């Protein structure tokens, strides 16, 4: 398998390359240090697998979900392994919803990346044990699809994360406070989120706010 790796930390890329080079089934054909160089590399270099970090600085593409969405739009059949430090449940589920095949925790990459590559090559999903525990604890299971937010719920979450109160949002939309509160609660329920802190983290990770 021809592999492209992407991470903005050179030392991480060295580690990933060593792990992949020790495999008899994969060869690293290219490295990227951000979303822009990754998209450029993908357009010129054929590959069978992308192993990428989640958040890398780039030209307006620093948030991971937007980057994944762009990769998926241009290369719908490309298997993607995400190697990340993120453990936010909603973000993990969103990554799977964007078509990621496997998610490996950075702390466990040395032991789990080979297993993830094997699973992906066989057409199966993989998720790190530690992250699977996070999802199970949240009651979502590791293969639970992400229900998409309605347009109104998305807007309410975005406005909350940008610093507006429920009352201010209600006033803006000329709706009752209880209606906005209900939309907020429904959004949190869909995302498997129980606290405002996690809701704001989800909004940031998915690129709603910067």
From TrEMBL:
Domain called Response regulatory: residue spans: 2-121
Modified residues (4-aspartylphosphate): 53
Family matches, as Gene3D superfamilies: 3.40.50.2300
Domain HTH luxR-type: 142-207
Alphabetically ordered keywords of this record: DNA-binding, Phosphoprotein
InterPro entries: CheY-like_superfamily (IPR011006), EvgA-like (IPR051015), NreC/VraR/RcsB-like_REC (IPR058245), Sig_transdc_resp-reg_C-effctor (IPR016032), Sig_transdc_resp-reg_receiver (IPR001789), Tscrpt_reg_LuxR_C (IPR000792)
Name of the protein described by the UniProt record: DNA-binding response regulator
SUPFAM superfamilies linked to this entry: C-terminal effector domain of the bipartite response regulators (SSF46894), CheY-like (SSF52172)
């Amino acid at each position: 398998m021809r592999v492209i790796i992407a991470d903005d930390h050179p030392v991480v890329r060295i580690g990933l390359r060593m792990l992949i080079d020790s495999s008899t089934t994969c060869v690293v054909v290219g490295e990227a240090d951000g979303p822009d160089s990754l998209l450029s590399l993908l357009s010129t270099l054929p590959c069978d697998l992308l192993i990428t970090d989640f958040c890398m600085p780039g030209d307006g593409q620093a948030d991971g979900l937007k980057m994944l969405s762009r990769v998926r739009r241009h290369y719908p059949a490309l298997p993607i392994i995400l190697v990340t430090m993120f453990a936010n449940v909603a973000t993990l589920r969103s990554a799977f919803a964007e078509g990621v095949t496997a998610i490996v925790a950075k702390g466990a990459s040395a032991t789990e990346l080979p297993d993830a590559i094997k699973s992906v090559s066989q057409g199966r999903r993989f998720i790190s044990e530690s992250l699977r525990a996070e999802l199970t604890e949240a009651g979502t299971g590791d293969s639970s699809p992400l229900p998409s937010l309605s347009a109104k719920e998305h807007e309410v979450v975005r406005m909350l994360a940008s610093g507006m109160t429920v009352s201010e949002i209600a006033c803006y939309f000329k709706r009752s406070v209880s209606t906005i509160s209900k939309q907020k609660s429904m959004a949190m329920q869909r995302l498997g989120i129980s606290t405002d802190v996690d809701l704001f983290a989800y909004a940031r990770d998915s690129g709603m706010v910067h």
